[in-house]
Amino acid sequence: MSELQMGVLALGGVGVLLVFAYNKWQEYQHRKVAERVFQQPDEDVLLERRAAEPVWRDEEAAPGDFRREPALARVEDEDDEWARHEAEQAAAVQAAALAQPAEPAEFRAPVAEPRSGSETPAGSLPPWEEESPAVTAAAAPAAAPAPQAAPAQDVPMPTTLLSPAVDAIAILELVEHVPASQVMASQREALRRLRKPLHWVGFNEAQGEWEFIQPDTPGAYRRLRVGLQLADRQGPVSSGDFSLFSGAMQQLADELMAVVDMPSSQQALDQAQQLDRFCAEVDMQIGVNLVSRGTPFAGTKIRALAEAAGMTLGMDGSYTRHDDDGRALFSLQNFEASGFAADTLKSLSTHGLVFLLDVPRTPRGQHVYTQMVDIAKRFAEALNGALVDDNRQPLAEPQLAHIRQEYVQKPQAVMESQGLPAGGSLALRLFS
To answer: Is the pTM of this model over 0.85?
Structure first.
């Protein structure tokens, strides 16, 4: 091999070495750049704003700040991080319960719950949730609680409907609402044999009030009160009637899946006897008689005087004066056996009339009695008659005043003191 060839080979070897060395140098430079790049700390854009804000730990709560967030901490293992988060959250809740006064429910910040598959570190919320008005209590005022209707149990039943002083009351509480027609049809045949009035009352939940119910009453009821009247003008309730009533109410409760509560039989019967004695003491009817002085009273003239006094002829054969509310005040009856009838008044003649006031059924008895006496005096003058009592003794002013005091004013005062005012709904039931 010539020297030229040896020189060319030597130069080629040197070139190859230079290229290899250059490649190694560049590889070294790229590795250093890569190491610098990959050794920089990771940054989470979701935590950049959080890093700029102070974090209050459980031991040092910020004054006036009601939000408490667990502190962020870097750990090397995810399991350890999750365990530490659980421990810190439990400690935060316990410290808040012991160290801070209770806050109104509407101002409590919600507790962040860990989310499945979320990349957000434990104990923190994304910025859009932290600033949401739905989460931040201070962002929106608490809404005022909506007014609620009073529970049915808080609405007392008016004694004008049913009264423990007058009625034996069965209390029924149903599981579901039942139509009034079904309620009253259940024991109709059994209850029809009662000789004392029966009154049904239900709670109207739509109106929020108690009301009388009838078979044709619309709507359904879940709370019922059924009252058996303990006495009337025929006397007190009998033990047989009360037993019939009690059994029917129990059957009704079983059929409607209701709970029934009733007074005991002996208690109801004793109360009925006491009520009947009280009614007998105040049950008075005041009659002012107008008798002829020899010439009988003509039916046509009686009719003219009665209508002029604002009295109307009823189906019972008597003329009655009513108040503005339609309540009967007093009546005018024929002293003789036959009653008044529109088709016989032209031919009727009688020797006497009776003005009658039913004391327990008449409101403002003294005032009504005075009106009745004044009208009777006008009749006496027009018909040439005389006012007498039941013994045919003349009634002058002193006698009329005594009747008003002793037989009208006093009985009605006693009734008022017992909560049974004359002419009231309970009195009208008792004295029927």
So the answer is: no
